[in-house]
Write a structure and sequence with these properties.
This protein is mostly helical and 239 residues long. It has a single domain, classed as Glycerol uptake facilitator protein (Up-down Bundle). The chain is built from ten helices and no strands. Helix 3 packs antiparallel against helix 7, helix 6 runs parallel beside helix 10 and helix 8 runs antiparallel to helix 10. It is found in: Membrane. Belongs to the MIP/aquaporin (TC 1.A.8) family. AQP11/AQP12 subfamily. One of its GO terms (cellular component) is membrane.
Length: 239
Amino acid sequence: SSLLLMAGIVAAVGLCRRLTRRRLRSHQRLRTFLLEMFSTFQICACTNELSLLGNVEPKPHTALTLTYGFTVLHGLTLPGSTCNPCGTLQPMWGGGISVKTGGLKVGAQFVAAVLARVFMHFIWSLEMAEAHFGALSQGCSNPMQTTETQAFCIELLFSVVFQLTILRVESINPKYRVHLIALLITMLVYAGGNLTGAIFNPALAFSLHANCFYDKFLSYSLIYWIAPSLGKFLILYVF
């Protein structure tokens, strides 16, 4: 039923994106905002659900297989959307999009992160699936299973590796590129998922761990917002 729920989210977002493209051709700003918001909502909502399936046997094979499968699905169904504030920094920095458009996209990503969290909490409160029982009582699930310095370095390193790969595979056929990126994300989740969650996406981190940001805002914003952004700037500066 968790898989059905995620498939339903992907289908609904696909429909919303199609309608937005068709109906809002003349409203460029609103169209940009909504497309980015729907796309980020899909990733945040599905990842919130996936995080509940991390303990499904056999561990960690089930979780990693689902991570790979859904990353490929997101890549194929959400072309043209970055869904990551760090990814939006690049065209802003390079002059590909204006600061205003960049700000609009980042705003859309964080709005989507909050909406996805509220939506998933509502779904979990209905307790339709076994995985949903007790999901709301967890509070801050504390994804950091290491020191703050190590966590900062891990998210920074993963962000650098991820952004570097994105730059390197730009010229590859999109059909194959989606699988390469999904494979990389799955490998990073396998390598660091048990230490920091291996998120390297500020909006997604906020959607998954809003309670933690509320409890320990400074350390969480440093690790899940500043570290990946710093990784992005290092790549932009070097390349």
